[in-house]
Amino acid sequence: MTVPLSHPTSSIVQIELDQRSYDIQIGVDLLGRTETYASLPKAATALIVSNETVAPLYEAALRNALQSHYKGVHLVVLPDGEAHKDWATLNLIFDALLSHGCDRKTVLFALGGGVVGDMTGFAAASFMRGVPFVQVPTTLLAQVDSSVGGKTAINHPLGKNMVGAFYQPQKVICDLSVLKTLPPRELSAGLAEIIKYGPIADMSFLQWIEHNLDALKACEPQALSMAVRRSCEIKAHVVAQDERDLGLRAILNFGHTFGHAIEAGLGYGVWLHGEAVGCGMVMAARLSAQLGWVEESFASRLVDLIERAGLPIQGPVLDAQDNSGRYLDLMRHDKKSVDGDIQFVLIDGPGKARVSAAPQAMVRAVIDRCCA
Ligand code: NAD
Ligand code: GLY
Question: What is the SS3 assignment for 297?
């Protein structure tokens, strides 16, 4: 891939899924513009789903723009945080839909990060057996990953994202302007999911990120636009080949097997999802090097970038007596595990990933090396 040095701040990436195909629109100041919503299905009512942090910032602008397309524009404000990605909060969306007399044509708008997006998508998949929805992602992580590809879910006390559906949105609107209010820690969490696309699919993109990391951290629109567009292109390409996550799509989970263990072991929300994925990529890269699939220098290059992005590169100690044993126990619950065999997404040469088991002693050694 040839990566342009500068990139227009506005672009459209298409996700090709036959009748479920849709556009990801990327640009600045999109959210408050009436034209942004012109091509959406016609309906009498729209429901904006947001949370108590994002709604005060952006709901008024979205509502103003939607009012020329829908007679009734309603709002439901959810509590903020991963801890609320559950049945009780999901029910608040159904309560709002029913109390406002919404029907099968009502369009739902997910205005927020991945938590709001995943829950709104699941509500849309199940309300009256399916109504249209639009993703308006407001975190970097949601713009480059969670809003694209149709995975929707809530958490169960026994596991993350365990109850959900594949359900594609009508459109994804990535307004780069909203990222200005994102706390730096959340921005770094989003950078983890951007970095992920390099080692698994596109080494030129990895090099571009290395050169443009400071611009990304400063939220420069041209850099953000390029990073969001290339991330969405790679994800769209993978999802178009494996929408239901039966094979290839697993590569998008690079760093996630270790990362989910960190999130679950510490308790959800202690580390951000992107932070756990960043540290998980360190472990997965070191494991790939141990297996001889990449040079140790390649793993170190990735670790340097993850650190420069403001992400932790040392995993937490989850058990003082048997830390690697605790990680192994937690990783056995990963959705990719087969008959209790842990499957890792590993780098099989720069720019190429594959899913594989690994010798337990080697996994333990990598955990011991990477945990503080
Ligand atoms: P999040 O939704 O919790 O948002 C992070 C924080 O930023 C929240 O406090 C939110 O209120 C706040 N926020 C959002 N936009 C803001 C803005 N513009 N300005 C200021 N504050 C803002 O977290 P996230 O990182 O966006 O998403 C993580 C979730 O996404 C997890 O539940 C994860 O499982 C899910 N996820 C899903 C997929 C998928 O394919 N569906 C992929 C990756 C992650
Ligand atoms: N975030 C991983 C996936 O969408 O499959």
Answer: helix
Any ligand 2 atom below 6 A from CB of 249: yes
**Alpha-carbon dihedral angle through residues 9, 232, 276, 220, given to the nearest 10 degrees:** -10
Cβ of 193 closer than 6 Å to ligand 2, yes or no, is no
Q: Cα(112) to centroid of ligand 1, in Å?
A: 7
Domain boundaries, the chain: 11-181, 184-218+254-370
Mutate to test the pocket of ligand 1, among 115, 188, 268, 272 (most ligand atoms within 8 A of CB): 115
> Does CATH number 3.40.50.1970 belong to domain 11-181?
yes
φ/ψ (deg, to 5) at 140: -65, -40
CB 149 within 8 A of CB 15: yes
Q: Which two tokens stand for residue 260?
A: 């989910």
Is residue 193 within 8 A of residue 311, CB to CB? The reply is no
pTM exceeding the 0.90 threshold for the entire prediction: yes
For the chain, where are the alpha helices, taking DSSP H only?
55-66, 87-99, 114-126, 140-141, 184-201, 203-217, 221-241, 256-266, 273-290, 296-308, 323-331, 360-370
Ordered mean pLDDT values, 10 residues apiece, the chain (372 residues): 59 96 97 96 96 98 97 98 94 98 98 98 98 98 98 88 96 98 98 98 98 97 97 98 96 96 90 96 98 97 98 97 96 81 95 96 97 90
According to CATH, the superfamily of the domain at 184-218+254-370 is Dehydroquinate synthase-like - alpha domain (1.20.1090.10)
For residue 8, give both structure tokens: 């227009």
Residue position matching structure tokens 């694209």: 148
CB 124 within 8 A of CB 157: no
